[in-house]
Specification:
Layout: E1 4-10, H1 30-53, H2 57-83, E2 86-92, E3 98-104, H3 117-143, H4 147-172, H5 175-200
Parallel strand pairs: 1-3
Antiparallel strand pairs: 2-3
Helix pairs in contact: 1-2, 1-3, 2-4, 3-4
Length: about 200
């Protein structure tokens, strides 16, 4: 990925009307929270029940791909920004170089957050769980020799996995930051083990 440049920028529209809503509401964006789960859960339900509802594979495949596409667009462009203050995209400059841009909302000077903990849990739970389910579907289709369904489940893995990867990068920062976090964590664990062994060492 030598042609890819990583850029971290602040969310340009962080100061929207949502920041002025009441802090008493646990879920400040109920519509966004609903559609964050609706499309991806609906795609899974249709995949599980489509053979019972209809005998047309084409109809099932088109329905699932439409739901996955709607989910990809909604999560990438709407629910991530509203629920957790994150957004990512890729752009190509005039020289043909690919730039991955990861946005994170800046904390206000008062220290208040525009997203609640309940929304954050809903966002990350849906973002992580559903791609794992599609991975299970992929192995199931592969081992049961359902070749015609393999393309559908691979589409689910790719679309939802791309959003998961993008938002993890938004959350932890660039590759250098991710490497630094891993190094610091391993260093702390090593020092903790050394101290523990030093305490347990007989005198």
């Amino acid at each position: 990925d030598s042609n890819d440049d990583i850029e971290d920028v602040s969310l340009f529209d962080a100061d929207d009307d949502v920041s002025r809503r009441s802090k008493k509401s646990k879920i400040r964006h109920p519509v966004a929270s609903f559609f964050h789960l609706f499309f991806r859960v609906s795609a899974i339900v249709v995949y599980l029940l489509c053979e019972l509802l209809t005998s047309s594979f084409i109809a099932c495949m088109v329905t699932i791909i439409l739901l996955l596409s709607c989910d990809f667009w909604a999560v990438k462009n709407v629910t991530g920004r509203l629920m957790v203050g994150l957004r990512w995209w890729n752009q190509v400059d005039d020289d043909g170089r690919s730039h991955w841009v990861f946005e994170a909302r800046k904390v206000s000077t008062q220290g208040s957050k525009t997203s609640s903990e309940a929304e954050s849990r809903i966002f990350w739970l849906g973002l992580i769980t559903c791609p794992m389910i599609w991975v299970i579907f992929a192995f199931s289709a592969l081992f049961s020799f359902k070749v015609k369904w393999l393309a559908v489940v691979v589409m689910g893995v790719v679309l939802q996995g791309a959003n998961l990867y993008g938002y993890i990068r938004c959350k932890v920062g660039s590759r250098k930051n991710l490497t630094s976090m891993a190094t610091n964590y391993l260093g702390k664990q090593f020092l903790r083990q050394v101290r523990f062994l030093g305490v347990r060492k007989p005198s």
